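Q: My labmate handed me this sequence with no annotations at all. I'd like to see what the chain might look like in three dimensions before we decide whether it's worth expressing. Could you predict it?
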Amino acid sequence: MGKVRSNKVINGTYGAVWVNGEKWMDVESFEAKVTINFEDVNMAEDLATHKKMTGWAGEGSMTVKKVYSRGASLMAAAVKNGQVPDISIVGKLADPDSFGSERVSLSEITFNEFMLMKFEQKTLGTEELPFNFADYDLIDSISA
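A: Here is what I predict for the chain of 144 residues:
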């Protein structure tokens, strides 16, 4: 494979997030990852510890600029009534100078926490929204 030019490194500025179909223009950062759960497997006459996949867990977080009450608007009333709202997220990263774009759909989102209020003098506000997800689909990916 030949040399990759630096302008092909994808720029996060071109990332976008949709929550329940609504594009959130105030997203500062977004991350979604899958952690694979393994259990140790020991085999006779083998000193190595082998692994058997037993499942996976999806988790992520996004940071939004404090323009709206994102977390509270999405979660507060439902949580207070003992409910978990049905939430889906689509993330997209599409730098026009790169080799392509990535897009992922996450479903069965559960936000772990949300901020009711936070501020600090002479500081622009942000809100961190950590979450878990139980399903995902990789819609678009960048091929080598």
